[in-house]
Amino acid sequence: MSVFECASQVSFWPILIFCVCFAWLIFRIAKRNSFGLKEAVLAAVGLKKFERNLAINVLLVVTLLLPLVLWMWLIVECSSATL
User: Fold this and answer.
1) H/E element holding 61?
2) Residue 33's pLDDT is what?
Protein backbone atom coordinates (compact mmCIF):
# COMPACT_ATOMS: atom_id res chain seq x y z
CA MET A 1 0.00 0.00 0.00
CA SER A 2 1.40 3.38 -0.96
CA VAL A 3 1.66 6.45 1.23
CA PHE A 4 -1.15 8.11 -0.72
CA GLU A 5 -3.52 5.19 -0.12
CA CYS A 6 -2.67 5.30 3.60
CA ALA A 7 -3.26 9.06 3.71
CA SER A 8 -6.66 8.73 2.09
CA GLN A 9 -7.68 5.98 4.51
CA VAL A 10 -6.71 7.86 7.68
CA SER A 11 -7.62 11.41 6.67
CA PHE A 12 -10.95 11.58 8.53
CA TRP A 13 -9.66 12.24 12.07
CA PRO A 14 -7.05 14.93 11.30
CA ILE A 15 -9.54 16.80 9.12
CA LEU A 16 -12.22 16.56 11.80
CA ILE A 17 -9.83 17.78 14.50
CA PHE A 18 -8.72 20.68 12.30
CA CYS A 19 -12.31 21.75 11.56
CA VAL A 20 -13.36 21.58 15.22
CA CYS A 21 -10.28 23.50 16.40
CA PHE A 22 -10.73 26.10 13.66
CA ALA A 23 -14.38 26.63 14.61
CA TRP A 24 -13.34 26.97 18.26
CA LEU A 25 -10.63 29.45 17.23
CA ILE A 26 -13.15 31.55 15.30
CA PHE A 27 -15.46 31.53 18.32
CA ARG A 28 -12.65 32.66 20.67
CA ILE A 29 -11.53 35.43 18.29
CA ALA A 30 -15.11 36.66 17.87
CA LYS A 31 -15.75 36.62 21.60
CA ARG A 32 -12.47 38.36 22.51
CA ASN A 33 -12.75 41.09 19.87
CA SER A 34 -16.54 41.51 19.61
CA PHE A 35 -16.48 40.45 15.97
CA GLY A 36 -19.24 39.00 13.87
CA LEU A 37 -18.75 35.73 12.02
CA LYS A 38 -17.33 37.34 8.88
CA GLU A 39 -14.77 39.44 10.76
CA ALA A 40 -13.75 36.49 12.94
CA VAL A 41 -13.15 34.26 9.91
CA LEU A 42 -11.15 37.01 8.21
CA ALA A 43 -9.10 37.43 11.40
CA ALA A 44 -8.52 33.68 11.73
CA VAL A 45 -7.14 33.40 8.20
CA GLY A 46 -4.96 36.49 8.66
CA LEU A 47 -6.82 39.08 6.59
CA LYS A 48 -7.94 41.24 9.53
CA LYS A 49 -5.99 42.45 12.53
CA PHE A 50 -7.25 41.40 15.93
CA GLU A 51 -6.25 41.42 19.57
CA ARG A 52 -4.67 38.17 20.70
CA ASN A 53 -4.33 36.57 24.09
CA LEU A 54 -2.68 33.40 25.38
CA ALA A 55 -5.74 31.21 24.75
CA ILE A 56 -6.01 32.32 21.12
CA ASN A 57 -2.28 31.81 20.52
CA VAL A 58 -2.31 28.33 22.05
CA LEU A 59 -5.44 27.38 20.12
CA LEU A 60 -3.89 28.59 16.87
CA VAL A 61 -0.79 26.43 17.42
CA VAL A 62 -2.93 23.41 18.38
CA THR A 63 -5.16 23.93 15.32
CA LEU A 64 -2.16 23.82 13.02
CA LEU A 65 0.12 21.28 14.68
CA LEU A 66 -2.16 18.63 16.19
CA PRO A 67 -3.78 17.50 12.91
CA LEU A 68 -0.40 17.61 11.14
CA VAL A 69 1.32 15.48 13.76
CA LEU A 70 -1.62 13.07 13.92
CA TRP A 71 -1.69 12.73 10.15
CA MET A 72 2.05 12.02 9.97
CA TRP A 73 1.81 9.45 12.76
CA LEU A 74 -1.16 7.70 11.13
CA ILE A 75 0.61 7.53 7.77
CA VAL A 76 3.74 6.08 9.37
CA GLU A 77 1.69 3.51 11.28
CA CYS A 78 -0.30 2.60 8.19
CA SER A 79 2.82 2.31 6.06
CA SER A 80 4.66 0.18 8.61
CA ALA A 81 1.65 -2.10 9.08
CA THR A 82 1.47 -2.86 5.37
CA LEU A 83 5.15 -3.80 4.97
Assistant:
1) helix 54-82
2) 96
